[in-house]
TrEMBL record:
Annotated Pfam families: 2Fe-2S_thioredx
Matching Gene3D superfamilies: Glutaredoxin, NADH-quinone oxidoreductase subunit E
Similarity-based family: Belongs to the complex I 24 kDa subunit family.
Binding site for [2Fe-2S] cluster: C111, C116, C152, C156
Protein name, as recorded: NADH-quinone oxidoreductase subunit E
GO molecular function: 2 iron, 2 sulfur cluster binding; metal ion binding; NADH dehydrogenase activity
PANTHER family: NADH DEHYDROGENASE [UBIQUINONE] FLAVOPROTEIN 2, MITOCHONDRIAL, NADH DEHYDROGENASE UBIQUINONE FLAVOPROTEIN 2, MITOCHONDRIAL
SUPFAM superfamilies on file: Thioredoxin-like
Amino acid sequence: MSTPSRTVPIMFTTSEPVPPISFDGPADYPTDVLASLTAESDDIVARYPESRSALLPLLHLVQSNDGYLTRAGVAFCADRLGLTTAQVASVATFYSMYRQQPTGEYLVGVCTNTLCAVMGGDAILADLTQRLGIAPGETTPDGSVTLEHVECNAACDHAPVVMVNWEFFDAQTPESAARLVADLQAGQPPAPSRGAPALCTFRQTARLLAGVPEQPGGAS
Ligand code: FES
């Protein structure tokens, strides 16, 4: 007696292959910049028993120099830590704090995850998009503001939340967010709702996250 054939349902489908990860910008640093980055990276790497553990702060360090991750920055991290550029890219593209496009002085992220969205986050993003004349992911022509929509920042009890260079501005409305962005563009950044007493620029924030002095060379 033959065994009846079974139809096995297809549980998964394959998707189209995605393009390889690539970075833009210059491929090399000028000699003086390379010397400065090398000196500062020496201090960072020395804090870790395994040099590769320094990758996250080194990515912030090169981002503080360039405003985003350039080909030169990725290659610098790989060379400095004995990694391949593919290994660096796999980490750099996992965390949303590392950016692949040039970033304005202030990275304004509007949370549009579920709670913030229903509390007004969608309206805030739509209003800022119209006011600034840019789409999420783009930067104003004067280089002051990069707008993006962000996922939940674990601050749902303060919804809707706007983040500027990863500092919280709680319980926003379209009107208050418009004032916030106007102040940023006027060079008068307001204090965050909590946490840091004052806002830093995107590059200054990246230096803080890298754990190096605010100014290159050690001055703060
Ligand atoms: S949904 Fe916006 S912080 Fe959680």
